[in-house]
Amino acid sequence: MTRRAEPPAQLHPLFLDLSGRRVVVVGGGAVAAGKLAQLAGTGADLLVVAPSLHPEIAASGAHLARRPFLPEDLDGAWLVVAAATPEVNRAVAAEAERRRLFVNAVDDPASASASAGGVVRRGGVTVAISTGGRAPALAGLLREGIEALLPEQVETWVERAEALRAGWRAERVAMADRRPRLLQALNELHHGAVAPGGDAPARPPPTAPASDTAPEPGGARAPRGGFVSIVGAGPGDPELLTVKAVRRLEEAELVLYDALVSAEALRHARHAHCFLVGKRAGRPSVKQETIHGMLIQAARQGKRVVRLKAGDPFVFGRGGEEVLALAEAGVPHEVIPGLSAALAAPALAGIPVTHRGLATGFTVVSGHAEEAYRPVLMAVRPGATTLVVLMGVATRARLTQLLLAAGWSPATPAAVLLAASTPDAATWVGTLGALPDAPLPALRAPGTLVIGQVVALAGTATAAVRQAAAAPDTPTAGAPAEAAEAAAQA
Questions:
Q1: CATH number at residue 335
Q2: pLDDT tens profile 427-471
Q3: 299 and 267 Cβ atoms separated by less than 8 Å
Q4: H helices present in 349-480, as ranges
Q5: Residue 216, pLDDT score
Q6: Residues 307, 228 contacting (CB under 8 angstroms)
Q7: Which among 407, 409, 402, 457 has a CA at the least distance from the CA of 432?
Q8: Are 43 and 30 within one domain?
Q9: What is the CATH number of the domain that holds 51?
Q10: DSSP secondary-structure letter at 451?
Q11: Which residues contact 425 (CB under 8 A, 6 or more apart)?
Q12: Looking at the structure, do residues 365 and 331 belong to the same domain, yes or no?
């Protein structure tokens, strides 16, 4: 059997009804388990052939053959999935070709005659995307984009289209006339003009404002047409988004978001295509100039765009660069501040960055590059201020070395705050001298360092409030005097 080195120039997409039909999966590893999970909802008669089986396969309820592949395994099969080694996949492909069966060979285009796509299912609609096996990761990204674009009410659209189709067939409406009628019906449904199961308007469709803007009290709504909102997403908890940030996400058609933005925050962007452009240390990322171009191009196409950045856009977020690029391109834009981790992380840990008698100011630096933070550290008088370091967990040993050399006491209180405001939040409190060897959980999460006398107050106010709340009658009854005093001062 001779295979083409390249996949066919054009693939013919089909959606298969596999209910009750035999589908053979060759392979017993994690990849085969993933394929089996995708097939589970099809109602297919599933057979898995492999010498050893992944635990999920063993518990799947499929027919199992714990042995090497044999040609007779394809007897009665309608479709074959080859998810084994390249050698086994080639043997499966050869036998399937002889029997005129299609083979989906996972990550092995040379042995495949069928390619599975990235699948989006919502409300009775199935969308599949394929790159012919050449770029499955791209297919996954496209799937995410399409999933973000599909409206939540698509099931209502399917029901409406099904009901209209039955009537049109009875009335013998020409096929050419059905599409414009359906589009009109869906537009009315989208604007609330027609109840899902009825034919008569439930209320008049809304009319568009005559002006170019749709103002709200205080001018909160952005101008119509192409517009970019550079929005701060806060430290992670979606409930810490500002009301205005949520409104912009609800209005958005495109969202370019950072890697640290939570999935819960993106759920507000129900009508937008959400595209990850964020940067994480040591990982490939979209270039800043490319992000500028995407913002400008989308706005010039008339889209409402949100550039969603973790924390605050203007605190080590390169938001200033994006504003300058938009201004130079003549693109209308705005900045919506967010709660920076520099303030939120210490506050959530019970650490005030300023406190009477302990610190009258605070300094925020990035621990990412020594050439940037070293001059600042050398200029700060030891112990005179609270030092907050963003992106400094990995460089904390060098930061400690520089601070001790500058005269800071090793006994200075210090804290490491990981994944602030999220369920994975973790806090270490100790001293500057112990900071380099602080035992931290293995979290791939953003971290904030806080160094200064205020760290000694960590959790004090919270403890005092808990003790006061446990008192039977008065806020301070039964609570230690020290705790009450701490709560009053903190």
A1: 3.40.1010.10
A2: 999 999 999 999 988 777 789 999 999 999 986 544 443 444 445
A3: no
A4: 370-379, 396-405, 460-469
A5: 47
A6: yes
A7: 409
A8: yes
A9: 3.40.50.720
A10: E
A11: 348, 417, 418, 419
A12: no
DSSP reduced 3-state for 418: strand
Taking alpha carbons only, the member of 254, 213, 249 closest to residue 231 is 249
DSSP summary character for residue 298 = H
Assess whether pLDDT exceeds 90 at residue 153.
no
User: In 1-65, at which residue ranges do the beta strands (DSSP E only) sit?
Assistant: 22-26, 45-49, 63-65
DSSP 40: G
User: How far apart, in Å, are the Cα atoms of 20 and each of 17, 43, 48, 72, 132?
Assistant: 9, 6, 16, 19, 27
Total domains in the chain come to: 4
- Whether 130 is in a domain gets the answer no
Residues 6+ apart with CB under 8 A from 229: 222, 248, 252, 304, 305, 306, 307, 333, 334, 335, 336
Q: Check whether residue 333 and residue 374 sit in a common domain.
A: no
322 and 372 housed in the same domain: no
Is the pLDDT assigned to residue 339 strictly greater than 90? yes
Kindly list the catalytic residues: 258, 279
Strand partners, 449: 389, 416
pTM of the model: 0.52
- Burial code of 395-407, b = ≥16 C-beta within 10 A, e = fewer? bbeebbeebeeee
232, two tokens: 């701060």
Residues 328 and 435 in one domain: no
Query: What is the domain extent for residue 376?
Result: 343-458
My answer on whether 353 and 261 are in the same domain is: no
Answer whether residue 2 is part of any domain: no
